[in-house]
Amino acid sequence: MLKKRVMNLTQRVINHGIQAKIDELRFTVGAMESRLATLLPHPERLQDTEYKVFSQGGEDGILEFLTSRLSPPDVFIEIGVGDYTESNTRFLAMKDNWRGAIIDSGTAHIDFLRCNGMAWRWSISPVSAFVTAENINELIHGAGIEGEIGVLSIDIDGVDYWVWKAISTVSPWVVVIEYNSVFGPDNAVTVPYDPEFVSSEAHHSLQFYGASLSALHHLGVARGYRLVGVGSNGVNAFFVRNDVAGHLWDLSPSQAFVRSRVRTARGADGKLTYTGDDHGQVLHSMRDKLLHVVDMRSNLPIAEVFGI
Questions:
Q1: Per-residue pLDDT tens for 155-165?
Q2: At the topology level of CATH, where does 45-306 sit?
């Protein structure tokens, strides 16, 4: 038993060392990408600025482009980070010395910061909490952040729309928020608010979560933001506050929309269906679920909203 424990510990140490070297290489390449990007002309669209360092897709490059053009306060909040190995703000902290708070349930993100030394190398405050519209302002304030900030990132696979709507303790220059492309570009819809919402329990497909791009655009406009684009993978939308946006793009949902090709939908048996472009099939499986129609301020079945 002791021998097995020693072997497991040794393997964890080896794996940690290998991962640290990989992360160092990723950071070095990302820093080179950032310097090269400054030599390029102004892009025709936001997606042209993409590159990946620690983000899920090209969000690192997009945020580097936006923050270098806008020069916002060097403070971030990222809500929904998992263990923080893959995140939207890690490169900002490591390359540009930003400070901020990362919020998620559990302690994986706290453990990650401690085990790789980020807890003392950079000013990142990890918060462990299940995020709701009722507690988000208290969580942000408790992390010592208020007022003007550079970036707010929201990706909780749930009531993202309602959490953004509830945030009042900070005023971000840039908002990065996940949209659900299954809901298409036209209907302004979101899952109804439920402080205990968990996408894995909401529907077997795991596709009943979040809000449409149109719903987030509706909320963004109401809060004084413009939609400047989305990522090429059809996952995240980027909003910039109008008073600081200058000549950046101002797009409608139909102009910006990108259909996600991520194939994470599951069947009733719990197995991946590998459904990609056939979002109608996914919607049909959720036809009885209720969506909140933003401009009507009422909840309707998916079948009625999409005419299924």
A1: 999 999 999 99
A2: Rossmann fold (3.40.50)
